[in-house]
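REVIEWER CHECKLIST
Item 1: Sequence provided? yes
Item 2: Single chain? yes
Item 3: Sequence as submitted:
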Amino acid sequence: MCSIILRIDDTGIFIAANRDEMVDRPWAPPAAHWPKQPRIIAGLDKTAGGTWMGLNEHGVMAAVLNRHGSLGPAPGKRSRGELPLLALKQPHAEAAAASIGAVDAGLYRSFNVVIADSEQAFCIAGLEAGRPVVSELGPGTWMITSGAPNEMKLPRIARHLPKFEATDWKKWGSLLADNTPPLASALNIPVQHGFGTVCASLLALPKNGAPSWDFAAGPPHEAAFLPVALAK
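Item 4: Structure as written out by the authors:
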């Protein structure tokens, strides 16, 4: 279960995310990994060839998260990592969200896709049947994990969302690094049974100025956030 947090205000959209995964699943940090889509900068899942998060030259960000009880692949299902790459073919967030909303959700295990640019943000829920449900996120602070946005019955959101709401975005990296117990509500998950937090991201999509992406290539209490070279 990954986590993504967004702050949406009149200056832009600002994002923090931790990726939780099996630690033996190979991956590569964000870069231009796809020759047919050279303007997309994204992390590479070396197992299935997709991504968990990416950014295109138009300043559109797309990320995918597993929903409840859907960790890992399943026979007959396509990799959810192809969904951000599909979204990032689009020039703005609204079109990207529409492209995900048009897929057959039955082709995939359940997912949340989060899409944003400097003007709008969306959460698209795929529930393994029919068309995904597209929801626009309004101004404020949002946290999405394995259920609905700001679903306070989820222990991780109940524990950590108030901290993000009360903290300046520039200090969100320290919140991502919080690995204190209890495990049931942990944001930065220590490795247990081969699963834990493997990397983290901080992205800024300002209305005035260029996007930026700082990436920690390891658990964020251990790895430094370093700038990602973005497509121009």
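Item 5: Key structural point noted by reviewer: The domain at 3-227 is CATH 3.60.60.10 (Penicillin V Acylase; Chain A).
Item 6: Recommendation: ____
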